[in-house]
Amino acid sequence: MRGCGGDTVWSEVDYALPAGFPFIVDDDNLVVLEDVLLYLHATFIKATGAGLAKHRRRTSMHSVHAAAYDLVDFLRFIVFRIAQRQPGIVISEPQDSGVDHFHLPKFSYSDVIAYRDNLYTRISKQTHEPLADQTCGRRVYRALHYADWLAKRGRLLDEDSRPDIVVVQTNDKDYFVRTLTEQSWRGLQNRLGPLPSQRSEYGFPSSRPRLTAELSLSTGLRVDEVARLTIHQILSLPYDSQATPESKVPLRVTRTKRLKPRTVELPMYLLYELQLYIDGERRDALREAEKYWLRDDSRRPSALFLNGTDAHQHAGKPVKADVISDDFHQACLRNALTSVREKIDPESGVTYFTSVAQHRFHDLRHTFAVWMYLSEKASGNAEPWKQIQTLLGHTSLKTTMDIYLKVVNVERQAINASVFDATRRSWNGD
Prior knowledge:
By secondary structure, the chain is mostly helical. 45% of the residues lie in helices and 9% in strands.
């Protein structure tokens, strides 16, 4: 059983699918799981009541693919569980010969509970740690939502009632808000590399890791939002050479989480550095790309951040979010911002210890929010939450306060807010 993207468009207008809409097929006979496809369509297209054009504006295709992959994981568990419960059952045989889709055998809410319990016993192949609570919660939610959809259509095994299925919270480290101190940020600036204005005449090292981190810390942008910026967004901004470095210029961001546009405040010093990057390192990357794959202007990328000249045949291609995150991760390791963490080999079950970075790229966004709160409070703003919510792009004020209220109270007790006010004025490293 596996996920697959497709460009299929059904003849019925009500069930038309946008290009790239995912579906799931059986591993053995490569037929489509009809129930899952109809569920994804009902959840992400039909439920909007908006048609395909508005669907693209309201729902990121990334969300649809994430749901599909979560269902693949759930259904693999269901197939295994049914095979154990009913030895000899042929699960992957289509109901009718010659059709290109079929239904899985029915399962129950008890199977969803068993799936939840199974998730909390798993070790991630990527991190060699127990699955994060956030991952478990997301997968259980998707499995339960799918089960509810099937139940309304009589496709679930009969049960007396729908149980309350609780996702257990285990103080998951990923829920902690971790912020950088002024000292740790100063050290990271050097490890991340120079700003474009500080690069040597030979052009090394790259200023991209430093710029992407400064962008997130200065504006609260997420890593994927940084990766999706275009040169047009930067070149359209007015640079004022007479303005102070910390003065702000509004930057409209459209390719965001949940596709909800917002405006962030870009420091003038950073706009200047980004323009230098476009005219220098980015231009050099495109020249390198012309040796390999960039043959005409129609293929010239509009992305702001590109792979550098050292990427050779991949030079000039848009940099991916995971590369930006890894740049920051490596800088943390080089700056000894590490901690020892216990891990488990998922194959052997052997426990071992390793050094890991204390911070991840998303902590820059957290730091932006906390530093801004403390700075605004020090400036006399009694309730800066609404402003922070707007800049972060949170749908509700409650989300912002739930994430940051506890941490700012701790920080405020430990650190004088004027320190953060001074830090915000000197983010350019001066």
